[in-house]
Amino acid sequence: MDVIGVIPARYSSTRFKGKVLADIMGKPMLQHVWERAKSSRILDDLIIACDDEIIQKAAIKFGAKTVMTSKEHTCGTDRISEVVNPLDVKVVVNIQGDEPLIHPMMIDNVARALLEDSSLSMATIMKKIVDPAEIADPNVVKVVVGKNNLALYFSRAPIPYLAPNAEIKEATYYKHIGLYGYTKDFLFTYKNLPVSNLEKTEKLEQLRVLAEGFKIKVIETKFDTISVDTPEDLEKLKALLQKGIS
């Protein structure tokens, strides 16, 4: 296989237990994610990596392929690694189970970037920020990129900082969307990288990759998503869907 998509689905979320099964317009959130991922043109297979039988039963009910993984995993990367370890595949796409507005083109673009450029090991997504409130929001992770759209840094702080005497009058800010693609080989390198001080400071796992000197390709998208981390996020998402925004 060239590309596999894996949706790590954890039942015991710290801030919102069982959130992947939260009802959204008559379907569990996880089903919304799975249906959008199934529309990807590049995935050869799509698996939901479950940590609880409750999730597995719900996923099987709506037709998904599932794998039960260890409850001892502390992050989605470890859960994905367990799923793909026995598989012969080139690229793995980590699709977050709490991103019900994920667009299939995001998946295709991340995977295609890795298939077409053998120098890359990891890729992700960014979206230009249009709502000024998101710039200062620490829950909205910002990213700055350099040449060839390689990530320079990810932060919960507003980056880049616009200095009072800056030669430009208005900075452009990009939101990081947590969809990741890796080569299978790099996935196992990534899961064994040491936790950096930057990661401990910002609470952003991808910073360990940059701290160890590896490159992350960041692909711009015009599509937006909402990460559902709290019940309040869920209500915000429902309100948008009721307005016909998808």
In words, what does this structure look like?
The protein starts with a strand and ends with a helix. The protein has helices at 29-38, 53-61, 76-84, 104-116, 132-136, 184-191, 197-202, 207-211, 231-242, and strands at 3-9, 23-24, 27-28, 45-50, 66-68, 91-94, 122-128, 142-145, 151-155, 174-183, 217-221. The mean pLDDT is 92. Strand 2 (23-24) and strand 3 form a beta hairpin. It has a seven-stranded mixed beta sheet with strand order 5-4-1-6-10-7-11, sandwiched between helices. It is of the alpha/beta class. It is globular, with a radius of gyration of 18 Å. Helix 3 crosses helix 6. It has a single domain (3-242), classed as Spore Coat Polysaccharide Biosynthesis Protein SpsA, Chain A, CATH 3.90.550.
